[in-house]
Amino acid sequence: MRLSSALQLGLLGLLVLVSGGCDDRSAPTGAANQQRLTVAESLGGAPEPGFARATKAREFIFPRDHGPHPEFKTEWWYYTGNLQNAEGRRFGYQLTFFRNALHPETVPRSSAWASNQIYLAHFALSDPAGEKFHHFERFSRAALGLAGATAAPFRVWLEDWSAAGSRGAILPMQLNAAAGEVAIDLSLESSKPFVLQGDQGLSQKSREAGNASYYYSLTRLPTAGEIRIGEASFQVTGTSWLDREWSTSALGENQVGWDWFSLQLDDGRELMYYQLRLADGGPDPLSKGVLVAADGGSLKLTPDDIRIDILDHWNSPHSAGRYPARWRLQVPDQQLDLEIVPLLADQELQTAVRYWEGAVALQGVSGESKVQGYGYVELTGYAN
Amino acid sequence: MMNDTLVRIDNLSKSFREGDTERVIFRELRVIIRQGEFVVLLGRSGSGKSTLLNLLSGIDQPTSGAVIIGQQNLTGLSEHQRTLFRREHIGFIFQFYNLIPTLTVMENLLLPLELIGTAGAEAERQARDMLGEVELADRADSYPDRLSGGEQQRVAIARALIHRPQLLLADEPTGNLDAETGQQVLALLSRLARENRMTTLMVTHSLDVARLADRILTIRDGQLREDDVPKDRL
Amino acid sequence: MILWRAGFRYLLRHPLQILFAVVGVALGVAVVVAIDLANSSADRAFRLSAEAVSGRASHQIIASSAGLPETVYQQLRLAGKWRASAPIVEGFAAVPGQPGLTLRILGIDPFAEGPFRTYSPGIGRGSDFSRLLSEPGAGLMTAATARKLGVKNGAELPLLIAGEERSVTFIGLLEPRDQVGSRALENLLLVDIATAQELLGKLGRLSRIDLILPEGDAGRRSLQQLQQFLPAGAEVITADRRGQSMAQMTRAFQLNLTALSLLALMVGMFLIYNTMTFSVLQRRPLLGALRTLGVTRGEIFRLVLVEAVLIGLLGTLLGLMLGILLANGLLALVTRTINDLYFVLNVRSLALTPLSLGKGVLLGLGATVAAAFVPALEAARTAPRSVLSRSTIEGRQRRLLPWAVGSGCGLMLISCAGLMIPSKSIPASFILMFMLITGYALVTPGTAVWLLRRLQPLLKRSFGMLGKMAARNLVAGLSRTGVATAALVIAVAATIGVGLMIGSFRVTVESWLHSYLQADIYVTTESDGFGPGRTPLKKELLERFQEIPGIERITRARHLKLESQDGISELFVAEIPPASFAGYWFAEGDRQQIYQAFSSAEAVIVSEPYAYRRNLQRGDLLTLRTDQGEKQFRIAGVFTDYGSDQGRITMRRQLYEKYWQEPQTDALGIYLSDSAASADLVQQLSRAAADIQQLVIYSNQDLREASLATFDRTFAVTSVLRLLAVLVAFVGILNALMAMQIERSRELAILRAGGLTPQQLWTLVTGETGLIGLLAGLLAVPLGIAQALVLILVINRRSFGWSMQIAIDPLILLQAVLLAFGAALLAGLYPAWRMARTQPALALREE
């Protein structure tokens, strides 16, 4: 699951205008002192009538489900990846497209600018060697071809950032994004079938029916392409991850955020786990995850199956956030014991909703053998 | 020292241009006035008495020659410098009093003091003293138009003396007063002048007045002549 | 300080004179300040609203009147290079039931607005931003605007856009961050761009795209790269240029107003001069006594100058207050004119900036010091008492006379020569005109003396001894009355000059309208003003009109705005039948040839102001940006047109259709078979159009009258100013005469002692004042005519590019002379009465 700054639109709008520059920012601007949202505000709230809700399992049909589901309020296409060039210089990237519906009904209108969908995109590049974390945020309405998503041919874009399938299929996929002095141009291939999260794709977030999402992931996408930083250009290879999720009001009332891990081990397995945090600080029993075997088979993980210890913290200089900064993750039944370390301490996105999303390196043991790899960790709800 | 030369007039000539003609007032006057002297200048109307006063006080410039008062040669100075000299060193008394009508009696006396830089309580003290000398202490706050002619002239005398000038010039001071008042004013003037060891030059056309003087000078036909003082003084 | 007291107490003892001087300065300053405030308030309102609308944009992409295709924006954004770009769709709407109120509708894309406009649609109570995007017709406005319109949150506001009924739902407040922002956003309706397109009927198009380009080379490169996305009819202009060219439009108008106000101040200066001169004259003995005591010339100079400054200060402060009051009234007139002639402008309140008030103070004090300079010098030159004699005073004055006349003539010659030098500078022409006036003023006393001497025998014959005395008294008392007379001359001459200019103008315009307007009925759409960029007429209307009997011919026209880096040009596209073309006035060229070229070649005709502003002549090539790129057209002729001072290009319709894509019509000229039936036909046309579109239908007569009404309204401001100038002069005369009364008391007493009765004395004095008035009036005529000529031939030409017929209406001249005569007599009544009461005993008192 990927939750991030998918926002309830009214608040989105406030920030768009109040922040006076809803645009590329690689450093906190004057907008930084504007109102920030909490994740709970963005994804929780009273259920809006008219939107479809994720209440029961459904059949996933592709390529149709790669495209947008406008009857649901929020949706995203969430790409992350760890890459390196021939000399071993490492990079982490994140490219996310969020869709938000303003209104359940579409009123027929004559202007080509009218739309009840808006899109938001985040693009981040972690450069541990250069000790820099570039991150950018953009907004657009889904009108006049400025932003949108289509299932066939597969394409999701916001102005000049895009993820597009080719040859009539979703994979291989091209990712393109450029902002400030950084740019990515990556090709993603398939290697494993998609994984349905939760209960056959229905991922329940809290006890109330309807507080759930439809969620699937492509957990291992071999990637190759180019990263540009300023004048320098790097040919890179690595692995990416795509999370796809759509829902209408996913969070319950006393959920304040989550810690989410997506790990790609060098033995061909992937692990995904999200821990929902409650207002009192403890983990929500509905937290869950999945362990994907090398052949694609998946194993559900519940809070009883997993144990996460926080080994270190990092205080953000930009916000009040005190983020966990090193973990020990154990899955005793699988004899998995991993230490997870961020590649860069400050990978906090100063976007409308602040969150930490960073490339991490992992190493440990699985049974008798050593195991290592890379992944991404997302921490939300800490900065307020 | 009492008998030092105060005023020296050297080859003084003055003529006016009127249309195309040149009217000569006097030609190459020479006279010396010593400190403390009371000199009377006689002459008929139009003989140039007032002109001479103007030249002595720096109001006017001669056509040629020099006027030296104290150590200062007035002739070479600019108008501005002569004006400044005048405010410090000359006291003037006129036939028609010429008090400043918009100032009170007291203020009329304070003005010359202000011009030489004395102000405030010190100036007021001096002014009151002087008013006492001319016996007008009770009229300090009156305006000149409320005073009689004699009173006005007394104020004028006080004004002329208050800044302790080197030279006192009087132009027919009794010309506008009746005989009795004139006598009183004259007596006051000569007393004060002598008490303060003033060097005085008084212009008049009355021989009677001349009796007060130490010396009598007469202008006639553009020349200066010294006469004897009539023996019978008052 | 005793010295100061000596001088001031004199002033305090003669408060009436001081009062007059103060009033004179106050009036002069009031007029200047009022005009300046009105002008700068209008400027400010315009600038604020322009800035508010264009925000921080550095450049704008514009196209023809029809606007820019919206795909241009799409392409720019998809290219990713122009992140600071914002699309704008804007237009105007009227509110039913509130005539005269125009709302500006600004359609924006909130996502792009960040770098541009600093006012944020904040979240007030009850506003919901997503509603702006998702609800059609949702809009935001400031609390002040909502109050004015009487609309509550959530309510619907009915609008009239291009004659059609629409509505907007008020969903929330615009909360600007500061006071300035609030005023600038008055009457602004902020809507989503989709809503704007739908409301204004501009689907598929944008009014413009705002850009922020970096400075220097990077910006230039960016501009170049931009070009590939621009369709043939589009262009990138700098944002401030656009605002500047709009502000430029009113520049000439405002400058003319300012010059007139300065004239009033100038007359006020005479009052100061007079008062100070008189006070110096009166205080000669005192000043002489001071000099004897050893007060330097410099000290006396300072004394007089400081007195004047104090009077000036008092007058200036009073003038500031009066000026602010006056400005409120003038503001309405000025903005009305701007609205009539140029563009929509809403100015609700005066902008009392420290700058405006500071200017007023500086001008008032400056004028005072300038006017008091000469009297102060005079005072300083007072010789110490004993040298003084009465005859030398007047003698000196009379010696000055040849100097005055000489320098006066010199000034007049220089100014005449200067005015003949070809130039475009308006300020220069005003300066030269002021020089002319000053020169004439210097010559006036001398001329008056000369005239009086000549008149003496005549006066003696008609009025006996008294008559002759009156004349001689005036000559003798020249130092007192000369300046006052000059002031009256200037004021009255200004009345004549401006009156003749307006008269000539009106006559010209009337005659031109008669010739130029050939159709019987004119039809156009409702829009904001008579300018370009009007809503097109619906096609069905034309079809319906064709069916109405009695119509011989319908010609179609279109008014368009061509915007470019040079500014804004009006393009008038028309079908002009030969008979109508005959009504065009061409200063040069053969009409037949011109018509030939106009109707068949790639040629246009341009109006005088257009040609003047751009230094174009018949035969030159004109480059215009068409929908197919830049094209050149030959100027077949330059015609007279008083419809717009910005100038216009007139082109035949087929030529327009060849190069532009939007063959619409927004105005019709209808020719009837029977002209007499026009009133009836107007009715029929109204009925026919009633259910299709709201129109404005004028008969030929109506249009002429409406045009002249606008003309008269425009010049309403100047009448106010002229009146004020005369008022100031009146005060000046009164002041001078009151002073005379004091001066001459002894002399008049002698006359009374000699046997003159009070009535005779009254007659004498009144005769003198009447003579002054008559002389002033007569002397004002040549100056007035000269001023009129300068205004017509030089200033109007340079300001607007118009040529005009010169019509010298003798009635205006007669009125002016009577005005001067009357003003002087009136001013003289009270002083004459006082003088008549002079007691003979005065003659016997001592000095």
Q: Percent helix among the residues of chain C?
A: 55-70%
Overall geometry of chain C comes to elongated
Mean pLDDT score of chain A, rounded?
Answer: 82
Number of domains of chain C: 4
Separation of termini of chain C? 28 Å
CATH homologous superfamily of chain A? Answer: AttH-like domain
CATH class of chain A: Mainly Beta
Main beta sheet of chain C: 9 strands, mixed
How large is the radius of gyration of chain A?
Answer: 19 Å
The poorly predicted ranges of chain C are 120-127, 387-394
Structural class of chain A: mainly beta
Describe what you observe in this structure.
The complex is a heterotrimer of chains A (384), B (234) and C (847). Chain A has a single domain (9-380), classed as AttH-like domain (AttH-like fold), CATH 2.40.370.10. In chain A, 4% of the residues lie in helices and 51% in strands. Chain A has helices at residues 9-18, 39-43; strands at 74-85, 90-101, 117-127, 132-141, 147-150, 155-158, 161-166, 169-179, 182-188, 195-196, 202-204, 212-229, 232-247, 255-265, 270-278, 288-292, 298-301, 307-315, 322-331, 336-342, 348-349, 355-366, 369-380. In chain A, strands 1, 2, 3, 4, 5, 6, 7, 8, 9, 10, 11, 12 and 13 form a 13-stranded antiparallel beta sheet that branches. In chain A, strands 14, 15, 16, 17, 18, 19, 20, 21, 22 and 23 form a ten-stranded antiparallel beta sheet that branches. In chain A, strand 1 (74-85) and strand 2 (90-101) form a beta hairpin. Chain A is globular. In chain B, helix 3 runs parallel beside helix 5. Chain B is built from seven helices and ten strands. Chain B has a single domain (5-227), classed as Rossmann fold, CATH 3.40.50. In chain B, helix 6 (179-195) links the parallel strand 7 and strand 8. The model of chain B has no long low-confidence stretch (mean pLDDT 85). Chain C folds into four domains: 1-55 and 241-388, no CATH class; 65-232, no CATH class; 444-516 and 707-847, no CATH class; 527-693, no CATH class. Helix content of chain C is 62%, strand content 15%. A nine-stranded mixed beta sheet of chain C has the order 6-7-5-8-4-3-10-1-11. In chain C, a hairpin with a 2-residue loop joins strand 6 (156-161) and strand 7 (164-173). In chain C, helix 2 packs antiparallel against helix 10 (239-282) and helix 10 packs parallel to helix 13 (354-380). In chain C, 48% of the residues are buried. The model of chain C is unreliable at 120-127 and 387-394 (pLDDT under 50).
